[in-house]
Design brief:
It is a single chain. By secondary structure, the chain is an alpha/beta fold. It has three domains: 3-113; 135-313, no CATH class; 321-547, Rossmann fold. It has helices at residues 3-13, 93-113, 191-194, 221-224, 230-244, 310-313, 321-324, 335-346, 379-390, 402-409, 413-423, 436-444, 471-481, 504-524, and strands at residues 18-27, 30-39, 42-50, 64-67, 135-140, 152-165, 168-180, 183-186, 199-207, 211-212, 216-217, 252-262, 265-274, 280-284, 291-295, 301-302, 304-307, 327-331, 351-355, 395-399, 428-431, 450-456, 462-467, 531-536, 542-547. Strands 5, 6, 7, 8, 9, 12, 13, 16 and 17 form a nine-stranded mixed sheet that branches. Strands 20-19-18-21-22-23-24-25 form an eight-stranded mixed sheet, sandwiched between helices. It has a four-stranded antiparallel sheet with strand order 1-2-3-4. Helix 8 links the parallel strand 18 (327-331) and strand 19. The longest helix is centred in the first third of the chain and has 21 residues, at 93-113.
Length: 548
């Protein structure tokens, strides 16, 4: 017996509630045997498989399996009968074995003996199968419609992208909406995504998930028959005959199966129907001149789906609702403004308007949110596309002439009133132009919006954030006190205005700090005052918040 096998065996023998039923042996670096655990007078046997990576994890998964297929009806049991255990980290076999056995003991107590149920929903377990070169993944979101049991029809989807997932070719598809009662019910994506080319599939809403042992999706179409209405089965059968007669038919048809996972939430699970082996047939009823739809006893080819609804998309973290529910205007989308815009979109903001007259140049890319590959474009259209690609919920609008119009009309009272009316469409305005004229104009206008003016000193020593009212005056006062080195600026070749020196890292650190502070103020319902962030790099990197 080798040293590794000896350590594992001895460690198991040292656990007082465990006994070895079948001796552990090694085969091709995999160690296997069987054990019995006695917990509160319950004796349960498990086959044990220990992989070569043990005690380390492999792809975030424990590399020891405890298997008993008789336990499939219980929670946290995989399709192969293995118990889903999560344990503490250890790189020592003698320590890891007791930890894993204790985790298994905890599972027996909680789910087998006490039959506890988790509060959060666990999706049914679906075995994905491949039968063609590319494997589809369907992304869906909410709709403003309540589906009824037995409803079926067509849905539309868009081929979003092709790629590789876990060494397999994939096609990611976006569910666009459902045709219900001759009306199209759109998914809640932004206008950008609804404008993409659409394909067609079918859907069926069955209300309850098609499962066996409570959590495992059925394997065959015959098992699915009991969940389907005759109307849907006949529709499916007729559709199969239609494809059979069509020489230009596709290779497969996607079917979305819908069911409730909560009172107000449904999940859609995709099935791939091979056109050349359609799973339906018609059966004549003896003694009657009528037919019923039936399903063949053939394997269901399940496909992957993902719920991308707003609450899941931003479930791991988003900004305060004061930001996410606001209509936001960003004036100036250079280095600072592009970072502000990107941060807001990644934080869950959905209504953003971009104002900038300038075009993107290659030299802008190194310290902003732009990409070289898109070429020379207007900043608003370039960044607008980037933001739409980040979030499917962000509605991005663009305007190039705001600053020009504002400067032309400031001496005309009628123009000023019109400008104020336009700005009152917004709840929050970020001025990132570093243009003193714009700061003055915005400060003179009577607007209900919360106004932030963001600018950075040379070498990113400070980030200054002024807030209305009296924003313009405070800006001049604070910049008079700061040591803004205006001599050591970046002067490119050609007749072009010099600009401050700072890297993407320098700017983004300060912008993110500022955005975090603004969001924190909204979270804690405290007024946002004028502030600046000062960096100190003498001994260690420090950012100090100074409020006024």
């Amino acid at each position: 017996m080798n040293e590794r096998l000896t350590k594992i065996t001895d460690s198991i023998r040292g656990i007082d509630y465990a006994e070895i039923v079948e001796a552990f042996v090694e085969n091709d670096s995999i160690i296997g045997g069987s054990v019995a655990l006695t917990v509160e007078m319950n004796r349960i046997e498990f086959s044990v498989v220990i992989y070569p990576q043990y005690p380390m994890q492999f792809h975030d998964t424990e590399t020891i399996k405890f298997i008993n297929k008789e336990l499939l009806p219980y929670d946290h049991v995989n399709a192969d009968g293995s118990i889903c255990v999560h344990t503490l980290h250890s790189l020592t076999l003698e320590e890891k074995i007791p930890l894993d056995f204790n985790s298994l003991k905890h599972w027996i107590n909680k789910y087998y003996i006490n039959k506890e149920k988790d509060n959060h929903y666990e999706h049914i377990i679906v075995q994905h199968k491949n039968f063609s070169i590319s494997n589809p993944i369907f992304l869906f979101t909410e709709v403003d419609y309540t589906f009824k049991k037995g409803q079926f029809g067509y849905f539309s989807f868009t081929n979003l992208s092709n790629g590789v997932l876990k060494e397999e070719q994939t096609v990611t598809n976006l569910v666009q909406g459902f045709n219900v009662n001759k009306n199209f019910v759109p998914c809640k994506w932004s206008r950008f995504y609804h404008g993409l080319t659409k394909n067609e599939g079918i859907f069926y809403f069955m209300e309850n998930p098609p499962v066996k042992n409570r959590r495992f999706a059925v394997d065959s179409w015959k098992e699915l028959e009991e969940y389907a209405t005759q109307e849907f089965l006949m529709f499916l059968n007729q559709l199969g005959k239609k494809f059979e007669a069509n020489k230009n038919r596709p290779t497969e048809l996607p079917l979305l199966i819908g069911y409730k996972i909560a009172d107000d939430e449904i999940h859609w699970q995709a099935i791939r129907i091979p056109i050349d082996s359609f799973p339906t047939y018609g059966e004549k009823i003896l003694g009657l001149n009528s037919w019923v739809g039936r399903l063949n006893d053939q394997e269901i080819i399940w496909a992957q789906t993902r719920n991308c609804s707003y609450k899941y998309f931003f479930g791991r973290g988003k900004f305060n609702e004061k930001l996410t529910r606001s209509r936001i205007l960003i004036v100036g989308i250079g280095a600072i403004g592009s970072m502000v815009a990107t941060t807001l979109v990644r934080g869950g903001c959905t209504k953003i308007v971009l104002f900038d007259h300038d075009g993107k140049e290659p030299e802008n890319v190194c310290r902003s949110e732009y990409k070289f590959s898109t070429g020379i474009l207007d900043k608003v259209s370039d960044l607008g596309l980037e933001l739409a690609l980040i979030s499917p919920f962000a509605e991005i609008e663009m305007n190039q002439r705001f600053v020009d119009f504002a400067k032309i009309g400031m001496n005309d009272d009628r123009w000023k009133i019109a400008l104020e009316k336009m700005l009152n469409q917004y709840d929050i305005i970020f001025d990132c132009t570093t243009d003193n004229d714009v700061a003055y104009i915005l400060d003179q206008l009577s607007t209900k919006a919360i106004l932030f003016n963001l600018s950075i000193t040379n070498h990113a020593k400070e980030l200054v954030c002024a807030v209305n009212p009296n924003m313009y005056q405070w800006l001049f006062e604070i910049f008079g006190k700061l040591n803004n080195d205006a001599e050591d600026l970046y002067n490119p070749t050609g007749c072009w205005s010099p600009t401050f020196k700072a890297s993407y890292n320098d700017i983004s650190v300060l912008v993110q700090y500022a955005m975090k502070h603004i969001n924190s103020c909204f979270e804690n319902k405290v007024p946002i005052r004028n502030f600046y962030l000062a960096t100190e790099t003498e001994n260690e990197f420090i950012i100090k918040l100074n409020q006024f």
